[in-house]
Design goal:
This protein is an alpha/beta fold. An 8-stranded mixed sheet has the order 1-2-4-3-5-6-7-8, sandwiched between helices. The protein is globular and about 50 Å long.
Length: 235
């Protein structure tokens, strides 16, 4: 069952889709989208959420402040805004699910946000897809020219690496071999940090935006994820 949820974050009305498990609920997943202003309904999230519900997994995907149906101005928001939005969304998911097995999935920019949530919440697992990494200074820059300038300065001092090393739960890490956005060195850094506790997948001939691309290779990669993720969550 799909239910549209309205909630408040920093006095803004945000909207999301809650897919209730169709069988006895085994786990719950918060989906944190990537950068840009692409609404939750565009792309593969509805298909993924439907597949998860069939397997007994409740999930919640939402539009950040200034994106899709949600109120606010995109260019006035930042990573800090999104971390706060995600925390409110996570609390809402916990209120609407029965399971104590809470998973958080972050895509691209959503991965650092997911890792941040792990510092203050008890999570069973992190699912990191094509994960980005940003400097500490980038967190406060509003999306636009200032943010673009800051992220070009590098990611060596990214807090995500130290934060992820502290996470004790299981991890799912996936990325493409032909990513044109996130440097491969970031994936290698993440992989090294979690090699002893992660399921790591590298999809051949896949770029950063394969979750929205329509070519056959990208479609097959998405199908692979939709097949693997419920198994990972329920194992």
């Amino acid at each position: 069952m799909k239910e549209e949820i309205e909630f408040i974050s920093a006095k803004k009305r945000l909207f999301g889709d809650l897919y209730i498990a169709k069988t006895d609920e085994q786990a719950a997943l918060l989906i944190i989208a990537g950068g840009g202003n692409v609404p939750r309904a565009e792309g593969w999230y509805p298909e993924l959420q439907e597949a998860l519900a069939e397997k007994g997994i409740t999930s919640f995907a939402f539009d950040f402040t200034g994106v899709g149906q949600s109120e606010g101005v995109f260019s006035e928001t930042s990573l800090i805004t999104r971390i706060n939005d995600a925390q409110v969304a996570l609390s809402l998911l916990q209120e609407n699910c029965k399971s104590k097995n809470i998973y958080v999935m972050g895509v691209s920019m959503g991965a650092p946000i997911a890792i941040s949530l792990s510092l203050q919440n008890t999570l069973t697992s992190l699912i990191l897809l094509v994960p980005a990494a940003y400097s500490l200074e980038a967190r406060t820059k509003t999306f636009g020219p200032e943010f673009s300038v800051e992220i070009r300065k590098g990611w060596d001092n990214s807090p995500e690496f130290n934060n992820l090393s502290q996470f004790e739960g299981k991890i799912f890490l996936a990325y493409g071999s032909h990513d044109e956005v996130v440097p491969r060195e970031i994936y290698e850094k993440y992989g090294t940090l979690v090699s002893d506790k992660a399921n790591i997948y590298e999809f051949e001939s896949i770029g950063h935006k394969f979750m929205r691309e329509t070519d056959l290779v990208s479609q097959n990669a998405r199908r692979g994820l939709i097949s693997r993720l419920p198994t990972f969550i329920l194992e």
